[in-house]
Amino acid sequence: MKKMVLLAVLVVFTFSLYGQEYMVPKNVKFENKGDYATYEPQVKETIDWLLSTSLGKEPNKRTEANAFLMMWLTGTPDVSINVNTDLLPFVKKSPELLMPFIAGCVRFSLENNYSKDDILVNKAGIETIVAFYRNNRGYLKKDDSIEKYEKLMEKGKLGEDIKKRIEKTKKK
Fold first, then answer.
1. 3-class SS at 97?
2. Closest C-alpha to 118, from 128, 108, 129, 127
């Protein structure tokens, strides 16, 4: 009897997950600062969808989701990301990786009290790219710079590397 109840619960739970398909927010209007905070749950949902959905699936929805995320990011007063281009050599080979990087940075900032720590925010973006790259190898070209980041992560030295690169850029 217990097995039947457990099976029924699992079936209901599974069907409820399938019923919750991501929808890109439509007719969004950002007229004041408060509007941006109101959309934070949709931004988080958008980021989750972008990062968990393979590049080969739903390209039109991905484009719309990217547009929504960028529209929100360019106007929100709470989240700002200083993207250091020296950290993004992979964008030349795979420009489609810029948005997952940005999504990882935004997610970190939102989950960490709107953090503006350039090193930690960029580190989160790079970690997101490494995971996204692993999950989408079939859609992406081999990239030595991402694999270098992967090795730095394994050694626990990614933060140090990012800090050096950011400091080097600031001296220029």
1. helix
2. 108
